[in-house]
Amino acid sequence: MRVSIVGTGYVGLVSGVCLAHVGHDVVCVDLDEAKVERINAGQSPIHEDGLPELLAGVVGTRFRATTDLADAVRDTEVTILAVGTPFGEDRIDLGQIEEAARQVGKVVAELDRYHVVAVKSTVVPGTTEDVVGPALEAASGRRVGAEIGLAMNPEFLREGVAVQDFLEPDRIVLGGVDERTLDTMAALYAVFDDTPVLRVDPRTAEMIKYTANALLATLISFSNEVGNLSGELGVDVVDVLEGVHLDRRFSPVVDGTRVRPVMLTYLAAGCGFGGSCFPKDVKALVAHGRSTDASMDLLEAVLAVNARQPLQLLERLEHHVAPAGSRVAVLGAAFKPGTDDVRESPTLTIVPELVARGAEVVVHDPIATGPAQAVLGTDGVAYTTELATALDGADAVLLVTSWPEYRDVPELLAARDVPVVDGRRVLPPDAVGRYDGIGYPRL
Fold it and tell me: At 337, is the secondary structure helix, strand, or coil?
């Protein structure tokens, strides 16, 4: 199948390269000429495990990038919209997706054949049919459901393992306006013949995506609230949640073996969720619910808990050292390991607070110091990719991202009386002389 994808961010580029890898002819469109040149040279502009190797295997044969949207759409059967849908001041910003639909519609007006446009960007329920569809029809002069197919095909990609998630999907959701659209989209994913395919209308597909992310975000905030209370009560939340995890409804026993689903990693206390999806999507769903007068009290609380959670690390820190005049090593800038994405990372809250309280801060991350510096600047903050350098001379350590490298912290701090505040509970409490962390009993 010949496919064009508008957007080369995490979703667009990973989807495009993976679709080419499984046999389709794919062209990705982006306005950034330098980015396009880099992709066509086989260099991935984003850090994603396995993506450089897959890109090298398909670029120049079944995959290319271009700045020419008209040329890309004209030569393809399906166009996937994977542009940004940021959260504005009080609602999701659909400007990019609407403009992309208009531009695609202008090209579709020239075609003498059926063309399917699929929305892969995360959009609030109703967007595909009420915003994208009318924009396509107005620009093309064609009718959706007759000359144009229209679909919503949400992605379920986790940053850091997005390639694996795409190539080993747990489900494929296809929301189409009619059977012809759904059949075309089903053909696109036919190679994944062992994967459940859910065929629904676009509005349902949009709601599935938001519901999935909102549920995982809720598990995280629930765990964090329980963790905060556990610590105050002198109870270790790690033990508490282990007792919950062992419920067979969460981790069933199959053929005598305990199966621990990945979902349980979200039922763990930490310093808050970040990234490009959970914060934005929950905020968008809450705002959309308000617009329909639906009560969104639970998800509003999820966001409130998450906004406060990074400050729990600072509160814990102040039980050991006063930030003013102290050198504090902040370990982790990316919102999660395996990515260089710092969007909504707890570090972006923690570091300015430390600086405001008079601390000298050094931020360590294996790959995300550049993006972090671009956001946080250098006023009172240093950056390093060397863990030993970050720990050298530190009066306290805040562990914010669960990079596997941080398991070396105890060895690097051997014989030094430095408090370690573990925001992800990745270190054994007895591994360092002075341990503290989210949900750990108060000392």
Answer: coil
